[in-house]
Write a structure and sequence with these properties.
The protein has 295 residues and is an alpha+beta fold. 23% of the residues lie in helices and 29% in strands.
Amino acid sequence: MGSCASRFNIVGDGEQRVLVRVAKTGETHVAPVAEGVSLSCRDYVIIPTRYGRDLARVVGPVDPASDSYGDPVQIQRVATPADVDRYNENEAKADDALRICRERAQQHGLNMALVRAHFVLDEPRLVFFFTAESRVDFRDLVRDLVHEFRLRIELRQIGVRDEARMVGGLGVCGRVLCCNAVSDRLKPVSIKMAKTQGLSLNSMKISGPCGRLLCCLEYEYDFYRDAKRGLPNVGARVKHGEVLMRVTEVNVLNDTIQVEGDGMNLRVPSNQIRQNPKTQRWTLHREEQPVDQES
């Protein structure tokens, strides 16, 4: 999402839509392109956000029928070079503002971790993002900050996933975090998704830097869920002649099932294990070559 796959140019007709990403927070919105307005990939625009009118960058065209990004926002105007320069100047001041806010928070004994400071581009507003384990009474802190900066001050408590999206970083795969580079509107992730895909349930292996389950667990979940329909689960009992065996592995990519019992360890095509619709019992109908016990 941070870069465009190809260049494009859209001249608005009232129906065309583009995906835009707020420069500072990484939040994405879909926006219609007004009639006669010309936009290209990576162009900067000014849009309304929850914090005020701010700078966003065009990511790419969006299917007008798509509703994946919620209600559309209206592009206020195409950003000028002066807007971009002002944004860069604000960014240069943000670190100093964050330092001052941290000092004031410590003076007030507030248990909060400041993540980012952001000067809203088109409004006299300074927003501080922070994480905390519980609610924080920061009213005295806000008064100090208003006196310091002479701006409208807003403190926003965010979750660890939002922190990861704002700060960015690399995942265990070596690629940029999905929430930062792919989409900020990922579906909920559950431990069931890891179980369905046969992944290790070691929390260290299936959690991201934010400490939550990996966003990418959702990507292939539907495929594995659908592929496993009509197949026995690991641990299920399978009758092979007079021998009762147990399923030890279901490999949907190779379309094979591994069973063991009575000294045998077999890997067979999944279509050779069938379920009796009346008894719900599984039966192996034809034996394949035994697999290596160490494989």
